[in-house]
Amino acid sequence: MKKLLTISLLFSALVLFAFGALGEAQVAITVNGERIQSGARVTSRDGTLYVAVEDLFRDIGGIAYYSPIMNKANLKFGKISWVISLDKGVAITDGREVPLEGKVFVENNKLYLSLSLLAELFGFRISTRTQETPTPEAPQLAPSPRAGALMLSGVRFSSYNEEMRTRITFDFQGGVPPFTSQIDRERNTVTILFRNCSLGNVASPVAVNDPRVGTITLEEKNGQVEANIAFRGTIQVREGKLDGGNPRAYFDL
């Protein structure tokens, strides 16, 4: 079960990996004595372990967003924030730069970071354990859509105050459905209709509470999902979508 944690800058994390016959791994992180199981994919390249960072941070209560268009990722855990600049080959925070060579790669629109880089950036204390025959914990399964069906499985957001924008991301299972959006400036609402789509186990409303966005409400009706984003002030909306292993639609306000 995914949990949102509020932690201080000084923390320790213990990461345990159990490898199966195909070299896949499951990751569990213990933060301040609490163990969190993550379904984030872990893979090995040339003897180095990498983890799908967006999936990992979503499970442990951090914020991670990778933009193939910008060729950058924003990571935040507790009070620590980093910008992963793939075009410049460095991770950046408060004037400090850490080289990325050999520590990151992208596969199927997913960003993977090495465990050593995560330890360097966020102060994780990491140990690994290899087992030939692991005994995995029973996973918490999300509702499975019927074959060929599309389902809205999550909503997340990232605020980029230095760029004066907020990104709302809708995650899907099965692919990104066709959608339309409309701005109602009298009601200060952006309405998005995702057609031929069902609503998964996603809480509504979603509180954003940043300078541009207040709340996001979700409702399924007549075979489509309606999302209403309440905004503040005068905005413009830029939308896009990404398919592949982590299908999603995003809206920059």
How would you summarize this macromolecular structure in one to three sentences?
This protein has 253 residues and is mainly beta. It has helices spanning 53-60, 115-122, and strands at 13-19, 25-31, 34-45, 48-52, 63-67, 72-77, 80-85, 90-93, 96-99, 104-107, 110-114, 151-160, 165-173, 179-184, 189-195, 198-199, 206-207, 213-221, 224-231, 238-242, 248-252.
Would you give an account of this structure?
- This protein is mainly beta and 253 residues long.
- The chain has 2 domains: 13-122, 2-Layer Sandwich (Copper Amine Oxidase, Chain A, domain 1), CATH 3.30.457.10; 151-252, Immunoglobulin-like (Sandwich).
- Helices cover 6% and strands 51% of the residues.
- Strand 6 (72-77) and strand 7 form a beta hairpin.
- This is Copper amine oxidase-like N-terminal domain-containing protein.
- Residues 30-130 form the Copper amine oxidase-like N-terminal domain.
